[in-house]
Automatic annotation (TrEMBL):
InterPro entries: Kazal_dom, Kazal_dom_sf, SPINK2. GO terms for cellular component: acrosomal vesicle; extracellular region; neuron projection. GO terms for molecular function: serine-type endopeptidase inhibitor activity. This is Kazal-like domain-containing protein. One of its GO terms (biological process) is male germ cell proliferation. Keywords: Disulfide bond, Protease inhibitor, Secreted, Serine protease inhibitor, Signal. The keyword Ribosomal protein does not apply. The keyword ATP-binding does not apply. PANTHER family: SERINE PROTEASE INHIBITOR KAZAL-TYPE 2 (PTHR47608:SF1), SERINE PROTEASE INHIBITOR KAZAL-TYPE 2, SPINK2 (PTHR47608).
Length: 84
């Protein structure tokens, strides 16, 4: 029984280490923090560079995702740089 508990503890510890090592340049488990500081009001550029938000919505570009975050006060990450 002690062996099983020790093994579970080591697996948990290894999982925590892996998760902490994935945190790099705003990325965690494939999620990216949008760089909203790059975009100023009153509007967004009309370029089409779709991003998939963590709310499972496709946004035309990162700026429109940031505008949604500002409007609703929610924290939305970028899952990938393509449509959902």
């Amino acid at each position: 029984m002690a062996f099983v508990a020790l093994r579970m503890f080591l697996l948990l510890l290894a999982g925590n280490f892996e998760a902490s090592s994935q945190l790099q340049n705003g990325h965690l488990s494939g999620y990216k923090i949008p760089e909203c500081y790059r975009y100023r009001l009153p509007g967004c550029p009309r370029d089409l560079n779709p991003v998939c938000g963590s709310d499972m919505t496709t946004y035309p570009n990162e700026c429109t995702l940031c505008m949604k975050m500002r409007e609703e006060g929610r924290d939305i990450k970028i899952i990938r740089d393509e449509p959902c």
